[in-house]
Specification:
This protein is mainly α and 370 residues long. It is built from 13 helices and no strands. Helices cover 79% and strands 0% of the residues.
Amino acid sequence: MSGQGGIMIGKAGDWAARHRAEMALSLRITAAGLIAFALGEALGVQQVYWAVLTTTIVMQASVGGSLKATLDRLVGTAAGGVWGAITAAIPHQGAVETALILAAALVPLALLVAWWPAYRVAPVTAIIVVLVPHGASSPLEAAFERLLEIALGCAVALGVALAITPARAHRLLYGAAAEALTPIRELIGVLLDGISAPVDRAAVLALHDRIRTAVERCAVSAGDAARERASYLSDAPDPDPLVRSLRRISHDLVMLARALETPLPEAVRDRVAALARQVAVAIDAFLAGLADALRKGAAPPALEPVKQAIADYQTAIADIRRDGVIVPLSADDAERIFGVAFALQQLLGNLEDLANRAGDVAPALPKRPA
């Protein structure tokens, strides 16, 4: 029994280590909610639940994300509260007049949300101000009270995000970038195998989708990291170049996939298939090392093996062209042969750019043990 208990504890520890970020976020949300409730009670806030709800809404995985959610909620609440109070101040009685006032409150705020969805709390606040009875308070006083309650929740959430196991957006970005390299590695291997054998189109499309989703996740984290930089909460490098490099690599793979929709002509593939496999192996090893470097804040691996493998492939293509192998082929086949070579050259340039971006990352992160 003790052995089984040890195994279960070990598995629980492994699970907690893999989900450290999720556990930290749950801790921050819980702490922020309790602190907001305690402060609200101590300050005599009438509807303290709004402060508590706000902490759970604006708390995000990173400090930058929490900062954006805080600003969005404050601006949305202020806009909805002020406009709701203005419209509610117009004398009205009965359901018809109330409906007209409600429409006057909602139309401009609905347009605001249509253009800027981040402020979706604005019409909600206006509805509360217009429709919820406020006792002896005027609509303007009710709007001001709602703003104070929301501001309390936002302040607590942002303070907790900064003080309790803070998660910096640039760290999340580098982790997301490392994750994005996994489907990129898989797709490169599948596509280069397509030089000599038909590729599984469904698998290729699925990998393209995974890459697209992963890069978009990086873009979200990059936006949060940029806000941290702009707010002087971080001195990490500009996150946008890293995301641009990943996007360009994904575009290179689209180009490569189009060139290899069908295998290359037999006379060509017999001479380059083994070299293409060497390219795939070299890129796979490089990207695996790069992912590890991004996670640990270490220097990126050397790109020389990839450069050599692609140079050998390009030399073989030049020899094939010199020997006249391409002359009897169709224009479409010739275009695909040179398309593969061009795509690999573009990919090499963007891999080098990505390595440089990872090199910028290394000094910005505290080193983690291997």
